[in-house]
Write a structure and sequence with these properties.
The protein is mainly β. It has one domain (6-120). The longest helix is centred in the middle third of the chain and has 6 residues, at 72-77. A hairpin with a 4-residue loop joins strand 2 (19-24) and strand 3 (29-44). Strands 1, 2, 3, 4 and 5 form a five-stranded antiparallel sheet that branches. A two-stranded antiparallel ribbon has the order 6-7. The chain is globular and about 40 Å long. The chain has one helix at residues 72-77; strands at residues 6-13, 19-24, 29-44, 47-61, 67-68, 86-90, 97-101, 107-110, 117-120. Bound molecules: zinc ion (ZN) (2 copies). The site of one zinc ion has 8 residues, from loops. Residues 24, 26-27, 31, 61, 63-64, 66 line the site of one zinc ion (ZN).
Length: 124
Amino acid sequence: MFIVFGASSAEAPVKDGLSLVKWCPKCDCNTVMTEWRVEEYSTLFFIRLSTTPRGDSYLKCQRCSTSYVLTDRDFRDAGRSQPHQQDILRCIKCGKKMRVPIMEETLEVTCPHCKAVLLCEKDT
Ligand SMILES: [Zn+2]
Ligand SMILES: [Zn+2]
């Protein structure tokens, strides 16, 4: 059953997110990359009800805006430890890799690359 709430998503830089200098294959040079994530919020009569971080964060090249999957090394290079354990999944729609939290059960995630909403089931 559908509920008539609007939902939209937007990319937003992560507050206090990672920022590091990294090799960008597309720019063919070292660039500054910062952490971004897709945020989705519900609207009811165009009033923003809530903002819930959805999907996962990723690194975005500030020069060419290409998105890259965050790796453990990125966290180490930025002097951070990873906030929580994550798995890497491949998006069934665009084929790109993304990180998802280790799943206890079926989980809905948003692909940071193509914005597809995917239902991930725990590996058994
Ligand atoms: Zn780049
Ligand atoms: Zn995708």
